[in-house]
Specification:
Order of helices and strands: HEEHEEEEEEEEEEEEEEEEEEH
Distance between the termini: 27 Å
Number of helices: 3
Number of strands: 20
Radius of gyration: 30 Å
């Protein structure tokens, strides 16, 4: 019964974390460039259980105190080797756990804004931005011209060119054209090229918050193969209807684990207060 309590509680903890992931997806459904997360759960290794004392003296109380697993059974051998011939009942699970929170990097829909400094990436790649913690990456192309003329994010982080340098826009220039390869032309002046970066394995970058991705220690940045669409923003790839269905399903799973936990607790209480009572 104690094992049942732990198994049900682990299931509740897993579903609670899944609820947090779904809630975060829904909260960022309107965040430009946001990529949804999925929680992947795993199961602790199951063990085989089988009946004990089938061929032992029922009056031997010491024999009834042993809990026999498949591992113990195999170590003692078969009947021919002097072991037990205990029929296998089945497997016993040990509960679930959070194996991974995976980011789904599928393309989000592009929405036309008409703003010349709004940029969307069609295909693979990230914009590189300079932050106080170092270079970070984002799919959010909602950019602005700062007071000192730099191309920056909504959090005032400098957008980097293909050489890793901040991009300076000429003052008093409204005619800004940005090509699919990131080439920036202000008036008739070529002032640089926005850098696009991608990684061979998308697990080389992880979410850091504020719609930014942090490169891992051994990450190897490559030139992005996507194209830049000026005057567009990439919407989140969150499907609100699907997330709501997942949220309801997750609630049902949590509720089932909660009921199992309550049942196990009631059985344990009965065992302690009634079954284990000594008459006299």
């Amino acid at each position: 019964m104690l094992r049942g309590l732990y198994t049900a509680a682990l299931g509740m903890l897993t579903e609670q974390k899944r609820t947090d992931v779904i809630a975060n997806n829904l909260a960022n459904a309107d965040t430009s460039g946001y990529k949804k997360d999925d929680l992947i759960s795993g199961e602790f290794e199951s063990v085989l259980i089988h009946r004990i004392n089938d061929k032992q003296d029922a009056d031997n109380i010491l024999a009834l105190q042993h809990i026999d697993t498949a591992r113990d059974y195999l170590l003692r051998g078969t009947v021919a080797d002097g072991g037990l011939d205990a029929p296998v009942i089945g497997s016993l699970g040990r509960g679930s756990y959070v194996a991974e929170i995976a980011t789904i990097h599928s393309q989000g829909p592009l929405v036309c804004t008409g703003n010349k400094l709004d940029l969307a990436i069609a295909g693979k790649g990230y914009f590189a931005v300079q932050t106080p913690a170092g270079v970070r990456y984002t799919r959010d192309g909602n950019f602005y011209r700062s007071a000192n003329g730099q191309l920056v994010t909504a959090n005032n982080q400098a957008v980097l060119d293909n050489e890793g340098m901040p991009i300076n826009l000429p003052p008093n220039t409204a005619d800004i054209s940005i090509g699919p390869d990131g080439t920036i032309v202000a008036g008739k002046q070529n002032i640089g090229q926005i850098g696009l970066t991608e990684f061979k394995d998308r697990n080389e970058v992880i979410k850091e918050g504020y719609n930014l991705y942090k490169p891992q220690k051994n990450a190897r940045p490559l030139s992005g193969t996507g194209t830049i669409e000026q005057g567009y923003l990439e919407n989140s790839n969150v499907n609100i209807a699907k997330e709501m269905v997942e949220l309801i399903n997750n609630y049902r799973s949590y509720e089932s684990d909660s009921k199992a936990l309550t049942t196990q607790d009631s059985l344990l209480e009965k065992a302690v207060n009634d079954v284990g009572r000594v008459n006299g």
